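Hey forum,

I'm writing up a methods section and want to include a predicted complex as supplementary material. The small molecule is zinc ion. I've pasted the protein sequence and the SMILES. Can someone with a working setup run it? I'll credit the forum in the acknowledgements.
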Amino acid sequence: MASALSSVGAWRIAALAVTSVVLAQCSTPPPPPPAATSPPSVTGTSPTPAIQPVSTADLGPSWHPGCPIDPHDLRRVDVDYLGFDGSTHRGALIVNEELAPDVVAIFDQLLHLRYPIAKIRTVDTYPNADDELSMEDNNTSAFNCRDIPGTGRWSQHAYGGAIDLNPLLNPYLDRAGAFQPDNAAPYLDRNRSDPGVLHTEDAAVRAFTDRGWRWGGDWRTPKDYQHFER
Ligand SMILES: [Zn+2]
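Reply by user p_vandermeer:
Happy to help. C-alpha cells for the complex are below, copy them as they are.
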C-alpha cells in the first residue's frame, strides 16, 4: 500500500510540475528572434588545422611497407582552390612534413591568382592508387609510393616531395613522344592558352619556382608539365 500512496503522491507532484511549466510558458514573453547567423567563414579561416598527421590506414594503397618514407613523416594538407566552375573548393594533398607549410602558401597563392584546378584528391581515392587513373581524371595530387616508370628508382612522389598539377591539361612527354595520361593528346600542343594550361614564367608556375621548387616543364627531356618537386 505504501507504494500505491507514493505513486499517487508522485502523480500529484508531476501534475503540479506540468501546471507550473504551463504557467511558466504562459507568463513568459516569447523568446527574442534568433541572433543573426554569423557570416560564412572567409577563405583561410577554417577552424580545421590545415596540416594534420596521417596514419597508415589514411594512406590506403598509396603506401605500403618498403616505401622510402614513413607515414609519420607525411602530412595531410587541406587547401582551398578555385574550381573550373568559378567556386572555391577544398581538397587534400599528402606531402612530406617539411614541405607542408610551403604547400599551404603555394595553394593560397594559386587561389589568389585565380588559377583554376579541376580537383584535388588524395591518390588513394583511385583503385590501387593508380596514377594513370588519377591523371586521366585531371586530379591534382602529391604523395604516391611509386617508382619512375621504367627506371626502378623512386619517384619524388614516393617521398611526398612532388605535386602533379592539372595532369590532363599538363601531360608528361618523353623523348620518344610517348605521353601520359592516355587521354592527353589534345594538350601536347603547349601553345594552347586554355585556363589551367601551364607555360614558362606563368604566375602559377612561379608560385612554385619562386619558392625553390623545380618544374618538369623546364626539363629538356622528358617534359613533365604537370610536375613540381622540391
Ligand atoms: Zn609528378
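Some notes you might quote in the supplement: DSSP finds five helices and eleven strands in the chain. Residues 2-27 form the longest helix (26 residues).
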